[in-house]
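Notes from the 1:1 (GR / supervisor)

We went over the backlog. Supervisor wanted to see one worked example end to end before approving the batch request, so GR pasted a single chain during the call. The sequence is below; no edits were made to it. Supervisor asked that the structure be written out right there so they could see what the output format looks like.
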Amino acid sequence: MSTIRTAQAFGTQSMLASLYDVAIQKAYTADCQGAVASGIGLSCFFFSLYAAYGLGELCALLFR
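Structure output shown during the call:
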């Protein structure tokens, strides 16, 4: 039942479309969760990078 003609002949378009919609929704949810995790990871990385840079600048000013 993978061809369009077969789905048309047996009238299973709505059933196949609902199965596809469920799979798309699962993929969308996983993608959103991955985007949030990536954003949190990148924000922690850049915060530590800029904090270390700022601390280095502060130490350079204090111990000159």
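Supervisor's comment: Residues 13-62 form the longest helix (50 residues).
Batch request approved.
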